[in-house]
Amino acid sequence: MTISTRGAAKAPAVLVLEDGRSFRGRAYGAVGETFGEAVFSTGMTGYQETLTDPSYHRQVVVMTAPHVGNTGVNDEDPESARIWVSGYVVRDPARVPSNWRSRRTLDEELAQQGVVGISGIDTRALTRHLRERGAMRVGIFSGNAVQDEGVLLAKVRQAPEMSGADLAAEVATKEAYVVPAVGTKKFTVAAIDLGIKGMTPHRMAERGIEVHVLPATATLEDVYAVEPDGVFFSNGPGDPSTADHPVSVMRGVLERKTPLFGICFGNQILGRSLGFGTYKLKYGHRGINQPVQDRTTGKVEVTAHNHGFAVDAPLDKVSDTEFGRAEVSHVCLNDQVVEGLQLLDQPAFSVQYHPEAAAGPHDAAYLFDRFVTLMEGQRA
Hints:
Elements: E1 2-4, E2 12-17, E3 22-29, E4 31-41, H1 47-51, E5 59-63, E6 67-68, E7 87-89, E8 92-93, H2 106-112, E9 116-119, H3 123-133, E10 136-142, H4 149-158, H5 168-171, E11 177-179, E12 187-192, H6 199-205, E13 209-214, H7 220-225, E14 230-233, H8 244-256, E15 260-263, H9 265-273, E16 277-294, E17 300-312, E18 319-321, E19 324-332, E20 338-343, E21 348-351, H10 366-379
Parallel strand pairs: 4-5, 5-7, 6-8, 7-9, 12-13, 12-14, 14-15, 15-21
Antiparallel strand pairs: 1-4, 2-3, 2-10, 3-9, 4-10, 11-13, 16-17, 16-19, 18-19, 19-20, 20-21
């Protein structure tokens, strides 16, 4: 990636997909070139949380909402210490932010952090193209990086694919840290950071949990050194088929029958730990309006998603695994993709979506309470 923060407002830009389709617009954010997997997010709000979600590492995010940036950027809403998206695509960027918490424009924030973007293109046409053809590699080029499209297409096709990408360790913390419980401490949880969002340990802390956030490389010994009442596996980027180390650690947790909760990447790791496969979705689920049914209660929830891979587990039966009986607990009502797993003979469950959902919705916040209930039951 080559970038400049100067001249973005006037620089021409072009977006080139690996199948050869291109879109021309204007630079947004930094000027230069960037590459990643083109995906789209259907959220109409929460763009700051999206940009700072480590699960978007090495992805170029297309916003389906046409008007983006109207609330500017503040210092309270980021989910991590930096923007993780590789590139950003919007149709109609706000000219002036209007929110009392805004400290700077989104354009300025993208430029300051070196994120190359493009604006003024038909994001609806681009989204429909990705729905029909699937997520694919893409490049954004602006300013002096704009060249003959044949040359740019060759660059895009040389970029790495998301399938087979092992990215969790690239975004996870390098050193362990502790998020203290709010109020009286009731439990201790070891949280494996595979790309954790800041709101996740906060949601647990609100419930009296002291959260020890550990690097993705943490061993089983590191996990139990904190004497946890429960173990949590976070969201994160990349292909779950590469996550052999987290799978090994989770299997160790399952062998000890410690209460376990996983979200997103953690759901895929639980699937692998139980012997199920994973696969890449055509274009994935990304946004804050995905309908999911909790099959244990029958309740339908509107939920926040960010995943391009899914677990291949049977929807119509209980499966026998090395760790007891397992079943699909949640399913996406749009396409019947597995959105949650639970063990029936020991305290372990996971969901594919994001119950912490800082930008909303909050339909699934009860899952943290379900984790607390598991730990209470184990202690009793």
